[in-house]
Amino acid sequence: MLLILQLSTTQAQKFTLNDVIQLARDQSIAGKQAATLRKTNYWKYRTFLSDFKPQLSLDGSLPSFTRSFVQVTQPDGTIAFQPVSNNNSILNLSLSQNIPLTGGSIFVQQQLQRFDNFLNNTTLYNGIPFAIGLTQPLFRFNQMKWDRRTEPLRYAESNQQYIEALEQVAVDATSLYFDLLVAQVNLQIAETNRANNDTLYKIAVHKLDLGKISQNDLLQLQLSVLNAKKDLASARQTAEVASLKLRSYLNTNVANSGRPQPFELVVPTQLTEFPVDISKALTEAFANRSASIGFRRQLLEAERDTEKARKENGLNATLNAEFGLSNRGTQPSDVYVRPQDREFLEVRFVLPIMTWGRAKARTETALANQQLIVQTVEQNKRVFEQQIYTQVTLLDMLRQQVKLTAEADQIAQNRYQIAQDRFKLSNLSVTDLGIAIQDKDRARRDAILALRDYWQAFYSLRLLTLYDFETNHKITY
C-alpha cells in the first residue's frame, strides 16, 4: 500500500520502521531511479529480441534530381563535359530475417527504379519484381549465437538488480530511521535530565538551608543543571539534522506553515523469532542474487571472447548470393511482363598470411583473460559465501544482544528511580546519584543502538539473499 505524507496538521505523525521503508521505496529518488533503470533494461531486452524477428523496410530515394555538367571520357581518351538533367528515383521493399544458428541473414525484396532524362524527354523503368538473397559469413565468429546466450542472462541480472536496489533502499532507510530515532531518544533523555536536575537542584537548595547537604554538592548539582541545558540544545540540533536527512531521503518536501512537520518514530521492539539456516541462505543467495547470474554471464563472455579471437585470426569469408527476376521498359507494367532471370553469387575472403605473431598474441591474450575471469569469479564466490555466513551468525548474535540490552535498560531505569527517591530522603550522595543517571542514559542508548544493529543486519541479510526468512518466500516486486 502506497503511503503518502499528509502534513496538514500541527501534530507530529507517528511512523513505524515499515512505514518509513515503504515510503522510501515509493517516493525516494533512489527508489525511482531503480524503477527507471528497470524500465530501461526491459526495453533494451525488447530491442535485442526484435533483432531476431523479421524486419520489413521500405527505402529509396524519391526524388533524386541532378542538373549539372559531368565528366565523360571520349573514345580517344580525352575528356568532355556533357550537360545532364535527370531524375533517378528508386524504391526498394525488403523483408529480412537474421539466422542466429549460422550468423547470416536471408532477405526477400522487390524494387522499382525510374529514370527521367529531361534533355531528350524520355523515361525508362527498371525493376526487380522478386528476389531472394542470402548473406552468410564463413569460418567467422557468430555474434548472434553468443548474444542469445548472454543477453537473457544480462536481462535476468538486471531484474534481480532492481530487487536489490529496493532492498538497498530499505537498508539505507533503516540507517536513517535509527539515526533519527537515536537522536530523538537522546533528546528525550536530555529533556528528562534537565527537568530532573532542575527539581533536584531545588531540593538541594532546601537541603542546604537545613544543613543536610554541603555547598560543594549544591555547586555540583548546579553544574549538572547547566550541562543538562547544553546537552538539551545539542540534542535538539542533532535531532533536527537527522530529521532533515530522513525527510530528504524520503523526498518529502511538504511543509506546514513554512516549517517541516516533525517525525515521531516508533521504537521497533517487536522481534520475530525465526531460524536462519546457513545452507538455506547460501542456496537462496546463489539462486536469487544478480551477482550469481553475473558470474555465469562473465564466464560465458570470457568463453565468447576466446572463440572470437581464434576465429578472427584465420580465414574470414562471406558468401553473398541472390536469385530473382528483373526487367526494364518504358512503363512500370513492363517490369512485370516476362521478366528475365537475375543471379548474383560472390564469395569475399580475407586470409592473413604474415602477421608477425599478431594472431597468436590475440589468442593467447584472450585465453589469459579467460583464466583471469575464471579465477576472479571463483574468488568472488568465496567472498560472497563468507558474507552470507557472517551475516547469518551476526543476526543471531544481535537478536540476543537486543534482549540483553532491553533487560539492562529496565534495570537501569529502576535503579535510577530508587536512587532519585533515596536522594530526596537525604541518604544518597550526589556522586552516587550522578552515577545512576549516567548508567540510566547509557543503558537506554545501548538498547536503541542494539535495535539499530539488529534491524540493519536483518535487512542486510534480505539484501544478500533476496529471501524473506520470516515468511519463507523469495523477495519479488
TrEMBL record:
One Pfam entry name: OEP
Presence of keyword Cell division: no
Main location class: membrane
Matching InterPro entries: OMP_efflux (IPR003423), TolC-like (IPR051906)
Sorted UniProt keywords: Cell outer membrane, Membrane, Transmembrane, Transmembrane beta strand, Transport
Compartments it resides in: Cell outer membrane
Superkingdom of origin organism: Bacteria
Similarity comment text for this entry: Belongs to the outer membrane factor (OMF) (TC 1.B.17) family.
Protein name in UniProt: TolC family protein
